[in-house]
């Protein structure tokens, strides 16, 4: 396989384009199919629509299905719109059930229903069942294409079954042993099957103690389980212990990316505006309400400064250090917010770990405030020509601001999480605004109290 690097990709893409232009189907297929499906999808969508349609004609439905899985949702919709109805159905036939379900959940319901009515009844019923689960649950992301075994089957029979059914399964690394009622009895890995004696029954080598999830479990919970146990897949089991499907690692990687993007959007108050396909107008509309709200909160900062106008008038040099106090409070709060939100996402904050977290952050706040306060004292003394009192005011204000900001960035997401609200709504801009007000209040209060000595 040709390695596409920066130096030769342009040339490689040029020749593929040339083969299309000259109608050299076999040369195009030879070089195009030598690439990984991810590279194929990238190159395919560098072409204009007529060239893409020509490429579709040169590729089989199975090959197009592999490319389809690598595409973004918007590109998948574009591909389906460019394919004939017959070819689109053939592509769907080559996809895993969970991939079809993901796509059908992204398109209008009447279009999805139309395609479902054209599909084989068994496949359509399976996808309808997956679509019936709420979004972001294990049931909505599981696949029903996996291999089950009966407990009396031998290792040699299992290998024969893998040979027959393996191509249709999402993964063959884990095999699931069930009884006649489809109740999950145990799990065996492909490694254990291959390295066991041919006449052994799978019941003798299966693991009876296994981890599973419920179809209605949140996808983040499934993600945490797969990450914690280093699984490649986890079975989805209903209340009757019947196996309904499996969630595989590739689906979890997509979820992790999706959840991370969502958290970043929440923490920076730009939720819904990160998607590149969103128009400038919609991006602005997603961000504008947050900015207006933050602007109103920011007026409180201006009002606070106005309250201490007399103090500022008597000692104008105080204004020089306002940005320092405000910025350090915001920076510290955002740091602690990021730490806590990440720990919550990983499920590491529980009743027994909460005191340890609070103790750590309190001590960390004291250390951060002390070091920064001590450093700024020396800097202010030099800047203010040895004015120790001014240096002391700035130093103590910075210490108090950093300590309280660190505490605020820790407590707010914990309190919001306790109220069963996504802690990422305690976004960076909110923490920054709150800490601006707190820091400036500390600064001007100390300055006012010590003004007669300045």
Number of helices: 22
What is the typical, i.e. mean, pLDDT? 84
CATH superfamily of the largest domain: SLC41 divalent cation transporters, integral membrane domain
Low-confidence stretches: 1-7
Number of β-strand runs: 5
Q: Helix/strand/pairing class, anyone?
A: mainly alpha
**Main CATH class of the largest domain:** Mainly Alpha
Strand fraction band? 5-15%
Shape: elongated
Tell me what the CATH architecture of the largest domain is.
Orthogonal Bundle
What string, H for helix and E for strand, traces the elements in order? Answer: HHHHHHHHHHHEHEEHHHEEHHHHHHH
- As laid out across the biggest beta sheet, the strand order is 1-2-3
Q: Helicity range of the residues?
A: 55-70%
CATH topology of the largest domain: Tetracycline Repressor, domain 2
Summed up:
65% of the residues lie in helices and 6% in strands.
């Amino acid at each position: 396989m040709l390695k596409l690097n920066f130096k030769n990709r342009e040339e490689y893409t040029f020749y593929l384009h040339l083969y299309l232009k000259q109608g050299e189907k076999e040369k195009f297929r030879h070089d195009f199919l030598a690439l990984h499906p991810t590279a194929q999808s990238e190159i395919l969508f560098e072409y204009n629509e007529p060239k893409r349609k020509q490429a579709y004609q040169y590729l089989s439905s199975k090959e197009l299905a592999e490319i389809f899985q690598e595409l973004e949702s918007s590109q998948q919709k574009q591909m389906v719109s460019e394919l004939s109805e017959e070819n689109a159905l053939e592509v769907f036939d080559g996809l895993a059930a969970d991939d079809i379900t993901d796509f059908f959940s992204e398109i209008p319901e009447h279009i999805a229903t139309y395609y479902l009515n054209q599909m084989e009844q068994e496949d359509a019923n399976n996808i309808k069942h997956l679509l019936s689960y709420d979004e972001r649950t294990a049931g909505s992301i599981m696949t029903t294409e996996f291999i089950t075994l009966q407990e009396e089957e031998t290792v040699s029979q299992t290998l024969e079954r893998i040979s027959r059914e393996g191509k249709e399964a999402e993964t063959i690394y884990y095999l699931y042993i069930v009884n006649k009622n489809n109740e999950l009895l145990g799990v065996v890995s492909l490694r254990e099957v291959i390295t066991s004696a041919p006449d052994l029954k799978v019941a003798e080598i299966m693991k009876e103690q296994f981890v599973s999830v419920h179809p209605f479990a949140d996808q983040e919970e499934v993600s945490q389980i797969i990450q914690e146990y280093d699984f490649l897949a986890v079975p989805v089991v209903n209340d009757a212990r019947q196996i309904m499907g499996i969630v595989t690692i590739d689906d979890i990687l997509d979820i992790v990316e999706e959840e991370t993007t969502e958290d970043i959007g929440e923490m920076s108050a730009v939720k819904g505006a990160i998607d590149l396909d969103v128009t400038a107008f919609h991006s602005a509309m997603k961000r504008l309400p947050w900015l207006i709200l933050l602007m109103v909160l920011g007026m409180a900062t201006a009002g606070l400064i106005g309250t201490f106008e007399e103090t500022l008038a008597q000692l104008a040099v105080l204004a020089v250090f306002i940005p320092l106090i405000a910025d350090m409070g915001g920076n510290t709060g955002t740091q602690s917010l990021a730490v806590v939100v990440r720990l919550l996402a990983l499920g590491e904050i529980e009743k027994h770990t909460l005191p340890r977290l609070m103790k750590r952050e309190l001590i960390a706040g004291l250390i951060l405030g002390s070091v920064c306060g001590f450093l700024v004292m020396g800097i202010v003394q030099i800047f203010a020509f040895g004015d120790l009192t001014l240096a002391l005011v700035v130093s103590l204000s910075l210490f108090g601001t950093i300590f309280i900001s660190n505490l605020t960035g820790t407590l707010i997401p914990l309190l919001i999480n306790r109220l069963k609200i996504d802690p990422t709504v305690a976004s960076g801009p909110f923490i920054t605004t709150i800490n601006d007000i707190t820091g400036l209040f500390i600064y001007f209060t100390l300055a006012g109290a010590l003004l007669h000595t300045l």
